[in-house]
Amino acid sequence: MFLQGYQYDIAHYANAEEKVKAEKCYLSLARQLLEKENHKFQYKEVEHGGRAQKYYSSIEWLLRADIISLCKAVTDVRYDLDDYARDDFFRAYTTDLSLLVAMKDFTLKQHIVENTLSVNTKGGIFECAIADALYKNGYSLYFYKNETTKRELDFIIQKKGRVVPIEVKSGNTRATSLKSFIKNKDDIEFGFKFIDGNIGIDKDGIVTLPLYMAAFV
Fold first, then answer.
1. 36-74, pLDDT tens digit by residue?
2. Do the bridges between strand 151-159 and strand 162-168 make them parallel or antiparallel, or are there none, so unpaired?
3. Can you spell out the DSSP letters for 107-135?
4. pLDDT tens for residues 92-131?
5. Do the beta carbons of residue 158 and residue 81 sit within 8 Å?
6. CA distance 91 to 32
7. pTM of the model
8. Which sequence spans correspond to the domains of the chain?
9. Distance between CA atoms of 174 and 214, rounded to whole angstroms?
10. Are 70 and 91 in contact (CB under 8 A)?
11. DSSP 3-state of 145
């Protein structure tokens, strides 16, 4: 019902040229975030052969309507992150997690209740929840991924002129990349690891927090 309301708003407020494309982009987020390990937004998931030239204006419309938030890739993890951000390489998250779930069929809700989600789906839901909490706290969102070194950070924010790296774990596993950045970057004092578990602080500067505490960062 609520998902249909959002679809109605897109159709009602977007101009004729954008409304179909914007709806396609929005409804593709379930595939982008819940079915793939790589959560980079891909236009080919919107439409076979889809390209930025056709759909980027629709992403901008959804962003201005506050229906999605963007998390941009950065080429380096240092202040000011915006200087290293790529506009053409990003992840898109819904600003209402319940609508992301509603885009899938009933079996997803059943898996949530029974705690039988696949690793990719669980990770996508957790990641979207953290993105939403950080975005609504006023943070611009960035991420880092290096295919050569295999180092990756799910999110990076800036707080009081400092860079704060963040990892989101569907289980309480090691945050190897997070530990490496804190150890090797003089301007990074600590980082957050959000898990489905309890609070903890270790000697490496990693602050482990339950998922819900992202709302208080």
1. 888 999 999 999 999 999 999 999 999 999 999 999 999
2. antiparallel
3. HHHHHHHHT---HHHHHHHHHHHHHHHHH
4. 999 998 888 888 877 787 888 888 888 888 889 999 999 9
5. yes
6. 9
7. 0.92
8. 2-216
9. 19
10. yes
11. strand
